[in-house]
Amino acid sequence: MRHRTAWQALAQNPLNVLASAWPWRSLAYLLSGVAFGAVTTVVLVSLLVAGVASLIVVVGAVLLLGVALSGIVVTRFERWRLRLVDLDPVPDPHRAPELPGLRAWLRTRLREPATWRELGFTAVSLTALWWMDLLVLGFALCVPVLVLLSPLDDPGAWPLVIVGLCLLPAAPYTITAWAAARAAVTRLMLAPRDSELGRRLTDVQASRARLVDVFDAERRRIERDLHDGAQQRLVSLNVRLGLARLDAEPGSSLAAQLADAQDQVGLAVEELRELSRGVHPKALTDHGLAAAAENLAARSVLPVTVDIRLPHRLAVTVETTAYFVIAEALANATKHSGATRVRVAARPHADVLTLSITDDGRGGADPAAGTGLTGLADRVAAADGRLRVSSPPGGPTLLHVELPCR
Question: Can you tell which superkingdom this protein's organism belongs to (predicted)?
Fold first, then answer.
């Protein structure tokens, strides 16, 4: 599974971080931050001093204007550099000027809140962030080396070599953790949630979550109505037909018709039970995702291995989405894959539930071919999750789903 951020790599697979590229990417991120921060500090301080000193002439105002707009250049580089440890790009908040020309551009930029927010980030970065990058690099890399070399000056300090050897393996984790935290602060300041775009995205996500909750509540109501209403009436009718058969003369035409009617009612009851399970399974409500998946496996035509380990019950939306993903995936495997066995596994990692469904079928699953993958993707997206499909020709087919479960 490909992680999108260094923080996610640390949270989900801390033991595999050393074998990945994240420590090196984090090191490059911090080193470039130190270099860029040092150069930018010298340049901007020089411009600020020169601008204040020459304020009585026009050139001083131009220099100070350049300092005020420096955040645009600094944050553009920061957005590009952020991709080292955060693969999701930060959008540029600036809008295009309504008119061409330098004056229109300056007027637009000076009136945008994003310009002054970026100047604030530049001030924080130059006075604090790159210095902290330097301190973290010094602590993670220089301190262990100095401790290891201490016996050269004092042979009696040889026990410090053991301390240095213990500190070295922690360096990649220290560097990666700080780079991830630094990137999170940068993203928070450059793309705040209270921006206009952030507010719109938040509103859309909240609306989608409300729709999912309303739809799930409606499913539960339909399931209760089917179970307590129509299903009970059919069971009662089946009992009455059985009593009527007792009053009919054995072997008569009426007895045969009553027997046939009773069989039809019995089939209707079974179909209604299956329908109510599909609307919202009782096992999911009462016992959780693992038990509901076991029920799906027991009813499947294919042999299904279920390996779901959850320390506690998840949110209703997460459990419901995961259940219907499993149900649809098993139906697809039965109809289209030609598989002989299926494996379903689920684990919580940090604040994400990872769900994988694998079959040994012929592969070649294509969302455009009407195999139900488009519906699965829509269902997962409605829960703010991600779905990935790997299905090369010849198989196997793997559905990997990530559902946030904060």
Answer: Bacteria
